[in-house]
Amino acid sequence: MIVHMDQLAGKQGTWSFDDGKVVIQYAAGWLAPALHKALVRSEVPMEAIAGVEFRARMGGAKKKGWELRLRLHERTDPYSFVGAALSRDEPFLLTGDAKKELVAEYYADQIRFAAEQAGRPAPGTATRLVAALPLHIQVHEGTAAFDGSSLSLQWAGNASGPKRARQRMEYPLESIEKVEWVPSDGWEYGLLRVVERGGGDRKAVKPAKDLACLLFDEGAEQGRALLMAATVTAYLWAAEDGGRAAGEPPMVDGPPAGGAPSAAGEGAPPPEGEDPDPQSRVIYARIRELGRLHAEGLLTDEEFGAKKAELLDRL
């Protein structure tokens, strides 16, 4: 049991603990990850935690520091689901220098014990880990807004002709299969894309002309877009879980439970329902998405090869 624990400070911010939750206050310096700046603060219920990882970071034979990471239960971590690991903006990771290693390891053991006693998370727990509603973000190409029942995209004057002509699109939550987030690679804009249910036959369109896409730049915009994708995903899960609890049939063509979106027959979750390596799953899912774009002629051979090599280097 965790009782009156001191705070644990690290490079990403400060974690404090009680019997019911881990409270994360993110660092706000200019080097802080963009998602952390967008989130500001998180409260992770103990019942949401499936595992706690702790390891010393080595530089040859010398210890360089430590890493403390929370692994959440299936359908509880929307950040991992939409691909936070692709930008290294992990919201449930704390690192520090070697002099605090023993203290950090002790805290890791205490969190692990408290989480084991807490049981399983309630349906809808993921909505407690995302932005408060309504959420509104502004990025390079326009704005996105989500109020829990619908997501709207609105384009600014620097968008393409088709987007400026349409001005605004609104997607009711029940019409959304998933929201994709693809970070910028430093050469091209990142994108926030709405995938509608039953839209499998939709003609492939370049993101700049796609009325389901909102383009964003690196840095702060990328963090805001990631927060939007994770927030909508959390509410999609809550709607699905609520329907099942009420005896309704599950929403068809929904996002796969746990881990990143995957192609049919690939990347299925392990039998226990937990994902032991979500970062690798996200990277492989992104490579499959690049393969699809390449096959549709939206990426050249050179672009596909370069982006694939970059992603494989992160494994």
Give a concise summary.
The protein contains seven helices and 14 strands. It is of the alpha+beta class. The two termini are 36 Å apart.
Structure overview:
The protein has two domains: 8-129, PH-domain like; 135-313, no CATH class. Helices cover 29% and strands 27% of the residues. It has seven helices and 14 strands. It has helices at residues 34-39, 78-82, 101-118, 161-166, 220-245, 278-295, 301-313, and strands spanning 8-10, 13-17, 21-26, 41-45, 49-59, 62-72, 93-96, 135-139, 142-146, 150-155, 168-172, 176-182, 190-196, 213-216. Strands 1-2-3-4 form a four-stranded antiparallel sheet. 36% of the residues are buried.
Keywords for this entry:
7 helices; PH-domain like; alpha+beta; 315 residues; 4-stranded antiparallel sheet
Q: How many structural domains can be distinguished in the coordinates?
A: 2
- Biggest sheet architecture: 4 strands, antiparallel
Q: Note the overall shape.
A: globular
β-strand percent reads 25-35%
Runs in which pLDDT lies below 50 for 5 or more consecutive residues are 250-276
| Overall average pLDDT | 83
Helix content: 25-40%
What is the first-to-last residue Cα distance? 36 Å
Q: What's the number of helices?
A: 7
Order of helices and strands: EEEHEEEHEHEEEHEEEEHHH
| DSSP strand count | 14
The helix-and-strand class reads alpha+beta
Give the strand order of the largest sheet, numbering strands 1, 2, ... along the chain: 1-2-3-4
Gyration radius, in Å: 20 Å
Write the layout of secondary structure elements.
Blueprint: E1 8-10, E2 13-17, E3 21-26, H1 34-39, E4 41-45, E5 49-59, E6 62-72, H2 78-82, E7 93-96, H3 101-118, E8 135-139, E9 142-146, E10 150-155, H4 161-166, E11 168-172, E12 176-182, E13 190-196, E14 213-216, H5 220-245, H6 278-295, H7 301-313
